Amino acid sequence: MAADSTFRLFSSSSDGGGGGLTQGFGFGFSESPQTPLPPPPPCVEVHSYEVSTTAKYAIEPVNFGELTLLKGRVSTQEVFALSNFDLVPGKYEGGLKIWEGSIDLVKALQSEIKNGHLSFAGKRVLELGCGHGLPAIFASLEGAVTVHVQDFNAEVLKCLTIPNFNSNLKRSRDSRVDKMDEDVRFFAGDWSEMHRLLPYARDNKSEVNHSLEYESSKTGYDIILMAETVYSISTLQNLYELVKKCLGHPHGVVYMAAKKHYFGVGGGSRRFLSVVEKDGVMVTSLVAEVADGSSNVREVWKLSFK
């Protein structure tokens, strides 16, 4: 499918605190790829009342045509004692920065709804690698009854994601926002173990075998959202296995926004799609493409079970 003509490549805007849009082709790393990674943090649920009271949180608007969402601006230096790094493998995975893919994803979701291809009403939604959580916030405002979000770092959820949800949902006139603690939940940890914690994930490995019958009414999320999650080659298989364990069968869908290639780190949408194709249980389709003539094209893809 051709890209939406309203899509534009965002200009670089460094905020020094991981809160601005960035156009960069690579990432800032404090460790070389050969450095052994520390063990991942334990998977935990972060409750909405655990919001940080110490990190400075400044609100900025992000415009999507007739829709305006609010995003926070938090200092990476203040939260993680890091500066000038987008990612520190195994310690900080870039959640305080708002990446272009999350903006692309919200725009693509808007287009899918407008074209009659998507509805969030009454759906269970999961956003993986949420960071700011704007796609999940959009899903909540569009009527999703369950919205669960995951980030590698609990600090990101406490300092940024939960405040972002609060800022956006409290300004909505939808009475459903009063039940945030019941239908919006936050989870932190590594993708390799996250299925053990997420409420609608299938923990039994055999359950993700495509040849088996699925009980979609009991397990699985209707819609999985993820933006800029496929930059690291080493995590692609874990991410894909988690997606299969979390996605409802047979009608669940995944919307993934990513750069076609991430220079310097080896991942990208096409590298992830090769993992999907090799497995053979899902089909993929291109929803939108965002390009400015450079080789670093951004894409939004839709995945579903065959």
TrEMBL record:
Main enzyme class: transferase
Pfam families documented for this protein: Methyltransf_16
Domain of life, source organism: Eukaryota
GO molecular function: protein-L-histidine N-tele-methyltransferase activity
GO CC annotation terms, alphabetical: cytoplasm; nucleus
CDD domains recorded: AdoMet_MTases (cd02440)
Keyword Methyltransferase applies: yes
Keywords noted in UniProt: Cytoplasm, Methyltransferase, Nucleus, S-adenosyl-L-methionine, Transferase
InterPro entries reported in the protein's UniProt record: Methyltransf_16, SAM-dependent_MTases_sf
Entry keyword annotation includes Methyltransferase: yes
Cellular localization per UniProt: Cytoplasm; Nucleus
Annotated GO biological process: methylation
EC number from the UniProt entry: 2.1.1.85
PANTHER family hit by this protein: HEPATOCELLULAR CARCINOMA-ASSOCIATED ANTIGEN, HISTIDINE PROTEIN METHYLTRANSFERASE 1 HOMOLOG
Family recorded in the similarity comment: Belongs to the methyltransferase superfamily. METTL18 family.
Identification of the protein by name: protein-histidine N-methyltransferase
